[in-house]
Amino acid sequence: MARWCGQKPPPFTGTKDGITVYRLKDDEQYYVRLQSSITGKRIKKDPAFKGFRNSSVRLRDASRIGSKIYRQLPVKKHTIYREITGKAILLLKAGEKEDVIITRLTREYLPVPKRTKTVKPVIKKNKPPKIVVLNRPYKTPSLSKIYRAAPG
Fold this sequence. Notes:
Mean pLDDT: 84
Helix content: 40-55%
Oligomer: single chain
């Protein structure tokens, strides 16, 4: 990009005679570029841009698939989102359907839930409840045990 080096600020911002002058949000510097001959209408209609349009559609679909899977991840890293989207683009290019891609990438990136056994509680009937005695009288040890334990 060419930078504006003349008087500060430039005499205009915007496009005039095929030259565009603009300033970035966080930058104090002004930039200059030539107006492109490619218009949005040409990209949408011209057969020369058919491949560009197809890849744009694949990128749109892949980013939607990637965001569905990425939102379910326990740890968020943007590099993983880009990796998921890249794999989704390749699978879309190969002709896979969206639901198949979501299933494959979900298996690859999401943790597998652990299977737990469902155990039914065993209830035994016709048995009286067990009686537990909590307060037992204190037994004093015999004299022979006291003499053996005493030092000297």
